[in-house]
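Input for the complex:
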Amino acid sequence: MKATIYDVAKEAEVSIATVSKVINQTGRISHSTRGKVLQVMKKMNYHPSFVATALTGKRTETLGLLVPDISNPFFSEIAKTIENHAHDKGKSVIICSTNYKQEKETKYIELLQRKQIDGLIITSGFQNKDLLQQMITSKIPVIILAHNDPSLNISVVSVDDFKGGFMATSHLLSKGHSNIAIIAEEVKSSTIRILGYEKAYESKNIKPDRGNILRTTASIENGKRIILDLLSRKIPPTAVFACNDLIAIGVIQGAREKGLNIPDDLSVIGFDNTILATTTVPALTTIAQPIEDMGEKVVDVIIDEIEKGSETSKKRILFIPELIVRGTTSDLKDTKD
Amino acid sequence: MKATIYDVAKEAEVSIATVSKVINQTGRISHSTRGKVLQVMKKMNYHPSFVATALTGKRTETLGLLVPDISNPFFSEIAKTIENHAHDKGKSVIICSTNYKQEKETKYIELLQRKQIDGLIITSGFQNKDLLQQMITSKIPVIILAHNDPSLNISVVSVDDFKGGFMATSHLLSKGHSNIAIIAEEVKSSTIRILGYEKAYESKNIKPDRGNILRTTASIENGKRIILDLLSRKIPPTAVFACNDLIAIGVIQGAREKGLNIPDDLSVIGFDNTILATTTVPALTTIAQPIEDMGEKVVDVIIDEIEKGSETSKKRILFIPELIVRGTTSDLKDTKD
DNA sequence: TTGAAAGCGCTAACAG
DNA sequence: CTGTTAGCGCTTTCAA
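Predicted:
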């Protein structure tokens, strides 16, 4: 059927060991036999089986990527850059989408281990710390992306969530808003953004209202649901800091349903700067994560750890977020109607 | 390091064959030994290596998925459903994004073969027919998704592009438009949508203007570029049928740049009904593809072909598209300004 | 510079 | 019902 190393060896009239050596460029072989083998390989359209190779203990040249929801543009965009960059470096990527379910995390991680991936990239929203710990001890390189949890001894590539939260809130504060709701995800990085939010208030000497801190899972629906809730309060917020673009869009849609004008009646700022932020009208003011840079960096780091072995010192790389002011935030209007 | 079948055998005081049998539920083993082996496996946290298993000729339980651009919401949404459904069926998915490059197609297909995937799902935009032919002859099941090319002897799961093109155009026609530009992708399914476009004209006894048929690659930028072009004609179109949502959004943005109001000055209809179609204002009128159904179906079909072997008769499954009328299309205004 | 042979972890006859 | 053994395709000593 498909050519094996034996077929090539026979055709080239050498031993399989010789063929193996020219494939891997190991040992010393005469120029002529090398040429001959190469030629036969090409002629027979031979490609070594990764499976057999992996069984001998070599790497599989495969990375695992765990995301909570590949249909969230933030993750699909990051997956794209990771995939591209990894392939440039000769690795392929198995992408698994966990749907925010712990059981799926567990299942996929076991699966990926069984497939002998060389390294694993996990992203924001990962919940099962024990599992992680287990992977670490089993020596397979793991990196966390966009999930800045200092309590784990793992390399991290992330945006500076604290700074991002601070910037977003400060922007709103500087526009005169003081009643700002923050809708955060139930993940670590959002927790840190909340810290930035509080810090921003603090530096203005205002006390944030704890009731203004909401948490949910990333989706348009949840954003909408929460803003509807918020809007039914006696004193609704005049601005919302949504911890990602999906939620921000839900907020905008919900507010519009209530007849509010964005940004005149409600300022909204998002986070991530995905494609969604550019397609709304007005376009969404948001905090940009350097998605491409982060994706490339995480690949570089994990490849480095794979090659250097697990003794490499763990890195913690924080990218600086950027405030992108577009049309969904404006100065607070006089409240006297 | 990691437990192997030998470790389990020794610990359970049986042979590896016995262990193998309980793993695979083959042969007959006494209840007691089975129990013991099971228990030891659990105790040692043993999981059979996929690599070793694959080498013996069994399946890898892995599917390949080739998309041209995972950051296009259509593909990331379809990838999500495929991934979910496949995992429910016990398969994992390797997603590769080719960036619309033939060389990458080639590279990934070779790679996937080397990894001994059980089946391959390729999507719209695939270009290299020869490669496909080669895969078919090499007996590995291949299915095409959203790319309805009757010239290939492969199973197809797709939306009815002809009907979709017809519906979109008819909708515009029924609104009084007769100067409708169609911006299609350079892929087969778009070609068929163009046929539907022409058919719609024909059934109204109008002759479409060939200059109104444009082709490009899916992206917001391209949509914008083309509409800007179109708008600079002496007699610009009054409506645009964009063959996907990304292009449609580019069209909207470009038209707005020129000061046009959507839909009053220009009606726009998209295709796909991705998340993007719901986030614009006004929301995008579009032709919906049943993404979930298609994704699930394609997984079912490929698993079926994997299990039944290549003698299964090839299927051609067409889903019916649906017109979703939202805010970007309206009746043609009187042209007298 | 080349080749023989052991072994990676598992499956699948075939014996017993 | 259980165990022995021969591969699967490749890498890697170790000899020649």
